[in-house]
Each structure stands twice: as structure tokens, then as C-alpha cells.
Design brief:
Strand content: under 5%
Radius of gyration: 23 Å
Number of strands: 0
Oligomer: single chain
Distance between the termini: 59 Å
Helix content: 40-55%
Amino acid sequence: MTCRKSALFLNAVAFLALILAGLLVHARQRANSAAPVVAANALLARQLQLTDLCVFTETGYTRNPGITGTASAFQDSPLSLEHFPSGTLMQPPPHLFGSPRD
């Protein structure tokens, strides 16, 4: 006996919907269990008066992308290759792209 293609498709969609529901439930449980740790980290950051997020530790323009200079990624020349691995993992902040054109 052969199965119709539409039945296979609906079974696949139902299976993927179950997986998605499981992932959403798991994410909610992880967020609820991590809430005390996040609150403790926020309190620690407030007590230590930390102001900025340090994303990467390699170089200045990847530590805090919000305060980078326009040419800091091209310290040698505008055509130089990226020699820090973290610079290839993140985009420049939006304010460095310039204004959108109409």
C-alpha cells in the first residue's frame, strides 16, 4: 500500500510542529531557570558600575561595537585583511553604514 504525497507532507509538518512546540517549551523553561542568574549578574554589573558589554577581547573595535571608530577596523589600510578572527564574526554597527538612501 502506498501513501499519498499529501499525507506524507502533512505528517512531516505535524512532526516539525511538535518539534517546534518542544523547542519553545524548552526555551521557556531555560529562561525561567536562568532568571535568578541573570538577576544576580545584573546586580553585580550595577554594583561594579559596568557600563558596556565586552563582546570579544581581541581588539578595541570588537570589544564594544557601539563605540568604534569608522576606520578602526582598517588600521593598516582600507584594503587590509582582517587579522582578528572576531572581526569576521560581527558586522560594524549600523551608524557606520551611513544614512539610508531614498
